[in-house]
Each structure stands twice: as C-alpha cells, then as structure tokens.
Amino acid sequence: MPLILHYHPLSSFCHKALIALYENGAPFVPKLVDLADPDHRAEFLRLWPIGKFPVLHDEARGRTVPESSIIIEYLEQHYPGRTKLIPDDSELAREVRFLDRFFDLYVHLPMQKIVGDRLRPEGSHDPHGVEHARDTMRTALGIVEKDMAERTWASGGGFSLADCSAAPALFYADKVMPLADDYPQVYAYLRRLMERPSYARALVEAQPYFSMFPA
Description:
8 helices; globular; 215 residues; 4-stranded mixed beta sheet; alpha+beta; 4 strands
C-alpha cells in the first residue's frame, strides 16, 4: 500500500517534502490538489481540515502526516534511504532542526507574506507588513551569507533536512528579492541546491505552473 502525497507542484512547502522523497527514493503516489476546485477542496479538507499542503498519507500504517518538517521526520523514521536527512548525533540533529525552523520562519514565511500581498485585491494591500517581511528576510539572509562562506550545505555537514527547507525558501525569495548582488554566497548556495537532482526534479515538475506565480 503506497504513500500518497497530497500536494501542488508550485507550492514551496511541497517542494520541501518532494526533495526528501526524491533524495531517498521512497515510493509514493503524488496526488495534486487544486484548492480552486470545490470537489478537490472538500476532499482535501476531509483529510486535513486546516487545508494546508503538503499532507502525506501512509496507507500501510494508517497514518496521515501534515506539515513538511514532520513529513520529513516521519520519512526518516519509517522510510529511511541513502541520504541521512537528520543526523543520529543529537547535537548535529538539533542544529539541523534549528536551521530548518530558521529557513521556514525567517525566509520562507516572510517571502510568502510578500507574495501573498501581491495577490490581494486593490485597496487591501499591507505595505507596512511587506516592508517588515523584507526586513526580516534581509536580516536572515545576512546571517546565511556569513555561514555559507565556509559551508557547502546548510548545517556544515552533509545534505540534510535544513537544505530541504532552504531550497524552496531561497528559490522563491530570489524571485521577490534577487539575491545575486547583495548575497553572493547565498546565491551560490541556491545554485547548488537547484543543481541537486532531488530539487532539480521538483523544479522541472513545477515548470508548467510557474506562470501562476505573481510577478
């Protein structure tokens, strides 16, 4: 009985889960969710009433697992593969989990705030909130710029959960606040992430949907 990933190819947090799945070759069935379709939306809300993807359903174990970080933790526990995404060493594991939260909270979510504001109808934009999000991203990217001067991957060790988190956060951040000039080390790191076969595959699959991203 397969793993089923309920997702959308354009979703940044879905990219995070896809990277982990592709890194370790866990067999799964992708199930695209179109929240604009009433039937799709109703079915998905029955599975996870919060209505946020990705959501992993493990038919064999009878478990439904929401949230990208928790999905990756679950895969590491029950479907490990060749890439150790969470180190066995507790100190290293804590650093990886911290960096996962760092990229989610201080790059990923502010980026989504900026993108979401572009989708608001005229008259309901939040310029103060957008500027606060940009300030948060600038601070976070400054920290990453220093760290990546001496690192290949986020934690300083091998490819990990932290890199699964960083890849989509930085990919979309680059679209709303281009990185190359002000953050050359971050940009070089993003290029390495995009060349990683697991993320390169997710990006190829997302290509038909990029026209939906608000300019």
